[in-house]
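Retro notes, structure queue

What went well: the backlog is down to a handful. What didn't: a couple of records were mislabeled last round, so from now on we paste the full input next to the output in the thread. Example, using ABC transporter ATP-binding protein from Streptomyces roseirectus:
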Amino acid sequence: MTDFIEVDGVEKVFDVRRKTGFLRRERTQVRAVDSLSFTVGRGEMVGYIGPNGAGKSTTIKMLTGILTPSGGRLRVAGIDPARERTRLAHRIGVVFGQRTTLWWDLPLIDSYRLMHRMYRIPDARYAANLDRLVELLGLADLLDRPVRQLSLGQRMRGDIAAALLHDPDVLYLDEPTIGLDVVSKAKVRDFLRELNAERGTTVLLTTHDLQDIEQLCKRVMVIDHGRMMYDGPLAGLHEAGESERVLVVDLERELPPIDAGAPARVVRVEGPRQWLAFPASASAAPLVARIAAEYPLVDLSVREPDIETVIAEMLRSLGDGRGAGNTGGTPKPPPDRATA
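Corresponding output:
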């Protein structure tokens, strides 16, 4: 697998002026990305996650050529994004969360027709791609509706289609399932999985929905204060943060705390409902099977740890010196907060 995205020692520093008194302003520097290095192979689907303000969007903007790095080296498909932004635009697709690339007052189909002309997509290729995307993303009933009348979930599907009309080699996704219901989320995930398998599209996915990462990505990178904190498999991330999932169990009647055996433990009991915590890296199946066999079970559900909690725990454990030895990836030392 050849490296398709190369990030080598990249930095991004912003000059910020802050008011310190009447007619007085102080100039300070904010380091949004700090000595960041990683590579992504052609055809990989990689989760790129971190807390709010970690530098994820700044990284994506540099990879697309919107921002110029303050230092270091960037290459996407062998192209320097800052120097050849127009050339790169034909190789990439971008979905920036709640910032649409669609024309607000035009019907959805008119936005696609404009992109057809902007990207100079051959007519036959455009027609084939549009038909495929409309079918897979369920857009047929939305094409004649103005974008401003679409719900957030509908617009997100419309934006994903727009980003793929010109057959990009790499797709940057920022919260692609935000605002979608369970059925629509499953559709989008299936679509992205198929896109990657059939066309080998490289995908860099930023999301706070851990299920997006678990279902789509074999590799995850964690960034905090502009620095790489972890790069490896998702299971290693859970181990680094010692994160837990929660099994919510509804019994037929109120009973003493469930004895499920290690490593699960009861963390809360309210009448017939009990909450059991267990390691996020472990399968829930044995735990569910044991409870179903030994207790009068009515219903149950599994609650995933939110990504902020996973990262916070991972950073805490790395700071305590516990994370470096038990991850399957590459944990990094925590950042110096004074320079972040």
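Agreed that this is the format going forward. Reviewer comment attached to the example: The longest helix spans residues 182-199.
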